[in-house]
Amino acid sequence: PFKFQGSIGRQLCRQILSTKLPFGPHDYQLDVITRVLDGEDVIAVSATGSGKSAYIYMVMIIALAILDDRSLCPSACFPADPAMVVICPTTALEEDLEQKMTSYGLRAKAVNAVTKMDAECANINIWQLVETEVTVLLISPEMLATQGFQGLLQHKRFKVQIFKLVVDEIHLLNSWGVNFRPTFQQIGLLRQRFPTSTSFIGLTGTLQKGKPYQSICKFLGLQPGKFYLHRRSNARPDIQLNIHTIRCNQATENFPELNWVLENSGKTLIFCLTIRLGFKLAVYFWYQDSQYLLANDRLRLFNSLNSSEYNDQTLRLLRGHSNVETASTVITIATDKLSVGVDISDFQRVLIIDPTDLDDLWQKGGRVGRNRLKVKDAQVFVYIPSAKMKLAQDLAAERRMSDDSGTMDVGLVDLISSSCLVSGINEAYNNPVNDPKCSNLCTSCQALPPLVRPEICNCNYC
């Protein structure tokens, strides 16, 4: 029987995507999407900026192309009007994907508290719109338990359309789903509500080996041997990783360790654990500001307390200054709201103050230098509060780490106490020494050859 994973199937997928997209698929992208098209459940792990989100629209583009011209693959079995449900952890990610998919000719719609309210103000039933006019539903976890979405799943017409369920940034199920946003708990239960023929795709750039990986599989009901794990290295050989100590606690209002940020041009992204800390840092920078960043609208706060209009304006500002060498300084102080999915191509440096765990650190670090043609010498600076740094060193020395909520994350402790930060990342994420290279058929690699691991590490531990 025909398989998309076979040579003819892969050739067909490459042919369709090369005519529908402005770029050709990587071989490793074909490894994933062909299995998804064959109905397999897949967890895909690879570095930030490696094209994981493309799996979503590539699958749908191929299915729609074959339905439009059955002669391409007469034996393919898809719903007559296929739909895909994509669960996104943040509204910024939803809207970013909606814009991208719409540009590729897909009927995508982001549904969250804001877009639902906007639809109601316009006297539009957003769930009816999704049922009749949408191919890709991008939905926030908070919407999963709403009456509108539950009603959508009970509607026979929509239910038979669904052929793929996608959860982006699945590593967040281990943290946000337990402590921060309980609505993430709905995702594990949601799979049981879908037709058994609906295959699952889980995407992430940060899924540690061992217990974190096992926990995700259990949460999603994925049994060993019954799904495909596609793990590529999530290392970023194009960035320099640095870890430093900072004097910082809940009462801190001065941040002299960060004064150097004001002296550097280009785009800087600073992640703070709370909105309050981010605001205090912004006030501190305002008092230290000799370049009038605030007066020139170049110091921005990006968080959930801002209006959506202000956050959108910040994103437009960041996307409008694509030339790092000539752009004015733009400093963005953000919370987790900007940590996943939003594709700003040219952050020169990313600072992470007090990361909660290793996944949090590496996910946020992945925002830097996503377009290496625009950014040279991309840097990530991790600032660990002095008390937490001492605790990590003590825990590492005594090996007293446990899974209790009051203890530091094991992965973060291991990284802090490692002799090399890059080696620490590779060990934690079970990264392959070398990923398989694409064939000569990959036009994307021909246009931009993949990075190779440098012989000499440039992290500040080496």
TrEMBL record:
CDD domains: SF2_C (cd18785). InterPro entries: DEAD/DEAH_box_helicase_dom, Helicase_ATP-bd, Helicase_C-like, P-loop_NTPase. GO terms for biological process: double-strand break repair via homologous recombination. It catalyses: Couples ATP hydrolysis with the unwinding of duplex DNA by translocating in the 3'-5' direction. GO terms for molecular function: 3'-5' DNA helicase activity; ATP binding; DNA binding; four-way junction helicase activity. GO terms for cellular component: chromosome; cytoplasm. Its EC number is 5.6.2.4. Residues 33-225 form the Helicase ATP-binding domain. It is an enzyme of class 5 (isomerase). SUPFAM superfamilies: P-loop containing nucleoside triphosphate hydrolases. Keywords: ATP-binding, DNA-binding, Isomerase, Nucleotide-binding. It comes from the Eukaryota. Belongs to the helicase family. RecQ subfamily. PANTHER family: ATP-DEPENDENT DNA HELICASE Q1 (PTHR13710:SF105), DNA HELICASE RECQ FAMILY MEMBER (PTHR13710). This is DNA 3'-5' helicase. It comes from Hypholoma sublateritium (strain FD-334 SS-4). The lineage of its organism: Eukaryota, Fungi, Dikarya, Basidiomycota, Agaricomycotina.
